[in-house]
Amino acid sequence: MLQAIGLTSTPRRELPPLVDDLTFEARPGCVTALLGDPGSGKTTALRLMLELEPGRGITYFRGRPLHRIAHPGREVGVLLGDVPGNPARTVLNQLRMLCAAYGVPASRADTMLEVVGIGGLRDQRLGSLSLGMERRVALAAALLADPCTLLLDEPAAGLSPRERDWTYELLRGHAALGGAVLFTTDDAKEAARNADRVVSIRAGRLVADQDATEFARTRLRPRVAVRTPHAARLADVLGREARAARRAVEIVAESGSRLSVYGSDCAEVGEAAFRHGVLVHQLADEIGDTGTPVPPVPQARSEARTAAHATAVAAAHAEAAAHAEAGGASEAGSTAGSGVEPGPEVEPAAPVLGAGVGPEAGTRPGAGSGFAPFPAAGGEAPGLPPRVGSGRSARAVRRVGGPLRPLRYELLRTFGTATPLLTSAAVVVVSVAITLVLARLGHTPQNRLLAAWPRSLPLPPAALGAGLLGALAFGEEYRYPSLSADRGTVPRRMGLLAAKLGVCAVLALLLGGLAVTADAAALGLVFDSGPLDRPAEWIAPAASWAGLLIGCAWAGVLASGVFRSAAAGLAAVLVVPVMVVPLVRKSLHGPSAYPTDGLASRLRELSWAQWPPEVDRLVLGALRVMAQPVGTALVLSLMVLLCAYGFTGLRSRARW
């Protein structure tokens, strides 16, 4: 059960909110359509439900708001936007990354690719797919963790009729197993054909919440809307005149003072009211859709689909029993769903997933395109496991939990594309070029020479590269909503944040070490090691270099999480040396009231455990690094960003 209560978006300047006090529900076992014209607030309503938009109101998913659910990706499947992920990522890599985020086995990705019929496209880049195939990948991602609720933003927009029918058959199959499905559309005929209930909105406000049959009767035919304090009298007058003229006119009392008249027009209704002295407050033509109403599904076809559904359920149970006898418990999680069976009030009248739609059957055209076979209604594609509805069977999806789950997700997200390699290559090339120029000019300290950091640049290339990788950690997720896995829409969990900070810190250190090594090698090759001397003290410079790289990477991570943009994260990295460092230098100018001499020994006296005297040098070196303007600026910036991150995370929860 999905219950949206009082959803209201943030008011715009001198404009009403896009969504205003919207309340409705999507019941389990039913497909619900959210119908409205373009710009009516459908997408904003979905984003408010998912807590991606600031605003008021709350949405309950089976009695709990999203930020109270331990694993949102297992409860709600989402399709937002046309692009399912980074175009440079492969289809299989995208789904395996989401498997790690949702805590399901990686083999589930292969199973869902077969379920949606694109098993042959697993090695294709997302950017090379057609719109229909992108939509299938997005549906596979939404169904990956076998969620109970599906939220889809215009899932059939731009698809061919055959692809559109396949998509809605998939949604009906999910609902037939007890799931709740909510999709948005601006086509009234599409809503009446494919939904069990239609919620109509206009300008962000609820207009009607109707059963699909009632919606088709009241919205898919032209009508005359009449508002009068004498509704019963006017209805009697119009009925008598229609019978006298032998015209087919239907009069429906919508409320105490409103009538809907079908088969007439404003002129006839107005003249009849005038002749009989009936006061009319409103008289207007209303046309929801003048197209031919969709014919109902024949009873024989519905019964055949029900029989096919029951047969597939029995086959799934038999296969589960066979696996249990053969000791296949470890394999069971890779191909199964949540095991939610339809309740007694739900009629499982949906066809088997993957069943063909329309009179034709057989395989899809275009041999060699990577499509799975497309069997006739009630059939199964050869070589595929029994599939019912959304791919669920009698067995439950095995969960893969533990503290390493966000780390696996972050590693797959980071190394699923060539971005780290390309960034490293660009950093090394630029760093070597700057180092050679500085060595040729001379008068550059060795530490700055190896770091390729002239005084005219705010940051060295390695620090900028580390900041870029950090900014992409959250920026990519907000750019591609399907990547905001398991947290996606609620305040960031500390486990995922720690994983991003840890991975970015390691990448920053590797990038800095690679840049310094390449700079030293280039200087040795070009100048025969002339500009380099063996340093007498290398621990403090190395610690300063590592702190700079890690600080820039973490600043990019936190800023992109706060501002939801990779560009904002990189800008925050540049703000530190350009704006914060001068302010710190100005504040530190003059004699210090608390000298650092003897501070390490005083700290040793205050501590419970006595550390050896050699640790004093390390503590004093760390204090000197932090006392530098750049170190102080980074520490202050990270503290501010961390506080802002926590503040925006708390603010992103739904509030009344």
Can you describe this structure?
With 656 residues, the protein is an alpha/beta fold. It is built from 22 helices and 14 strands. The strands form 3 sheets. The protein has a 6-stranded mixed β-sheet with strand order 6-7-8-3-9-10, with helices on both faces. Strands 2-1-4-5 form a 4-stranded antiparallel β-sheet, with helices on one face. Strands 12-13-11-14 form a 4-stranded antiparallel β-sheet, covered by helices on one side.
Mind sketching the topology for me?
Blueprint lengths: L1 E8 L12 E5 L4 E5 L6 H8 L5 E7 L2 E2 L6 H4 E4 L11 H12 L4 H9 L15 H12 L6 E5 L7 H16 L3 E6 L2 H7 L2 E6 L2 E7 H8 L2 E6 L3 H15 L4 E4 L4 E5 L3 H10 L6 E6 L11 H27 L3 H4 L72 H11 L3 H23 L4 H6 L9 H19 L14 H34 L11 H25 L2 H23 L10 H8 L7 H14 L1 H23 L5
Parallel strand pairs: 3-8, 3-9, 6-7, 7-8
Antiparallel strand pairs: 1-2, 1-4, 4-5, 9-10, 11-13, 11-14, 12-13
Helix pairs in contact: 3-4, 3-13, 7-8, 13-17, 14-16, 14-17, 16-17, 16-18, 16-19, 17-18, 18-19, 18-21, 18-22, 19-22, 20-21
